[in-house]
Amino acid sequence: MLKSTLIKRIILVSFLFLFTISCINQRETIAITPTNISPLPLTTSIPAFTQTSEISPTSSIIGDLINIGPQGGLFLDLVVDPTTSGTLYAATFDGVFKSTDDGKSWRAINNGLIGKSFTKIVIDPLISTTLYLCSYGGSLFKSTDGGENWYVLDIGIEIGGVADLAINPLSSNILYTTTDGSGVYKSIDSGENWTQTNLSKGVFYHLAIDPTEPNTLYAGRFVSDISSGVYKTTDGGQTWNATSLMGMEIFPIIIDSKTPSTIYAGTQHNGVFKSIDGGENWVAVNNGLLYTSQVYILRLDPKKTDTIYAATREGLFKSIDSGEHWYVINVDQNGNHISALTMLASNILYVAEYPVGLLFKSTDGGGTWQALRSTPISTAISSVAIDPKKPTTMYVAEDNGNIFKSIDNGQNWESLETYFEMESSHLIVIDPVTPTTLYAATRHGIFKSIDGGTTWKNKLPTNTDVNLVKVDPTTSDTLYAGTYTDDFFKSVDGGENWHLLSIPQTEPVPSWVLDLEIDPTNSSILYLITDYGLLKSIDGGNNWKEIPADGNFLEMDSKNPNTLYMGANDNFYKSIDGGENWISISNGFRQNKYPTSLKVDPTNSSIIYAGTEDGLFWSTDGGGTWNVMNIGLPNVKITSLTIDSTNPNVLYIGTSGRGLFALNLLR
């Protein structure tokens, strides 16, 4: 087993970078209260499972699969088809959704897509079934059939991903794209071939093209030095020149379609700037905005171009006098952030809220808002916890920062009130003795609730990035916590006080604490995975033995605690002697299927469920052989597998971008 330190670090650094540069980066700490919108029914029936050749003969234990939500997710872009009534597209971190009935229903359109972080959808102004999809993962995708099928356009960028795309409104063959590292590119054959313009270096997030003079474009550079600012070309990208708005990190740029010499630019820290002479001179137009506002979305009313909408860290703002004055038009009383905003026509807006992850529509310019009856289920589930005494109550933590609670088996979900900024809620854990006590591992420490998630208190320093928390199965006041900064903590009083345990470290780079298993028959026996490798303690973490094995996560057979399973970068492993020796158990797995999770069936240790980056597998012989569970799951990364200890007939499957599924297991 090869050391996976470098790969893990690349993955985390990439994720943090991508998330930081998204439209909600560097947001302030906010209090999230449950929305006053009535709960929406979230159960979606899926046809009963049909046996295929990919399932083992004992597949009779498999029943129905139901997507139980929660609705919402991190929506990074919304666009409306200007020529086809009722057609909307939503881009999320993990995929694309389409509605043809004005948001009443949605379906995923991901055929041909690879990678993550789909951040921008652009519709061809002349042929609305032609779409382009930008990805910070490094690819640009194109569809010519309204998103039903996608294929990759090879831009040949050297660094970074694709941030924005602009289409010549008079000739759809001419495209421009910005990148987050390699400057601006141009194509004259609808994206089949690309050339790099002389604006060839740096991070450029946004482009704007003059609707009347399409050889004139503006590009916003986003770097922390004096070269950051707005650049302009008047010859179709052959030459670029800096405008007078420099030294500021630029987010959106928009052009007044009626008066193209009027341009607006949103900035990272300095609000909105306006030019009325094609970028020669700029003035700040922030009356009503905070001077330090981060403005990451700007939209002009297509008919009344003196009406502008600005999404900021402080909420959604509107101006009706070309930016001279601004006032708040928040979607709800919570003032949640807007992660996407689009307009169909004058006064008709669609927005996506964050972190609640719901879609709203206004037909009166933001005066009133209505939640769309159906919102795509695009939540990225990081963990699931089920109340052992009241199993109809369950909690899910979402990678994008939210924690949801259901008290009716996932029929309805509520976003919990959280008094802490949870940019990444890695894990939610329930105290098995007192299930109203919850622990959340977040990028800002461990938070504890003693009232089922209504209120929370920080139990570790807010600057501690905690990715792991475990409760001792025999003594629930004993907790363990691990961080991405090599620390491993223990508490014996329910998280009130913590002390640091010493674990072996890599040099010179400190280890990440990745996973922990506690022997339910002897809780002094611990198995810990770090970047350093696998460690074992027989005295509650005071001393450790190094085991020559390396992986990303562990799973223990609760009936046979000496039997352990480990997922590594490209393989599953098994030990039957308490971790002393390991064998590969990947017979039947497709090549390059990155393991993500594993769960041993509590009623039959021979049955094991395994999640990978793009599917679910199972074994009926303790991992000797594996088969694909072709049960109707989308082709999506499995992030967590959970079986209710009081009702082992349901397997809960968490996914990255398609929410939580419940699979009935027929006994």
Quick rundown:
The chain has 1 helix and 56 strands. By secondary structure, it is mainly β.
Protein architecture, described:
- The chain is an all-beta fold and 667 residues long.
- Among the domains are: 31-40 and 379-631, Methylamine Dehydrogenase, Chain H (7 Propeller); 163-284, 7 Propeller (Methylamine Dehydrogenase, Chain H).
- The strands form 13 sheets. Strands 10, 11, 12, 13, 14, 15, 16 and 17 form an eight-stranded antiparallel β-sheet that branches.
- The two termini are 37 Å apart.
- Mean pLDDT is 84; it is low at 1-60.
Quick one: biggest sheet? 8 strands, antiparallel
CATH architecture heading of the domain at 31-40 and 379-631 = 7 Propeller
Instruction: Give the distance, in angstroms, between the N- and C-terminal Cα atoms.
Output: 37 Å
Q: Kindly provide the name of the CATH class of the domain at 31-40 and 379-631.
A: Mainly Beta
Mean pLDDT: 84
Secondary structure tally, helices: 1
Decide which structural class fits the backbone.
mainly beta
What gyration radius follows from the Cα positions, in whole Å? 26 Å
Strand content: 35-45%
Number of separate strands: 56
The CATH homology group name of the domain at 31-40 and 379-631: YVTN repeat-like/Quinoprotein amine dehydrogenase
* Inertia-based shape: elongated
The CATH topology annotation of the domain at 31-40 and 379-631 reads as Methylamine Dehydrogenase, Chain H
Helical content, roughly?
under 10%
- Contiguous uncertain segments of 5+ residues: 1-60
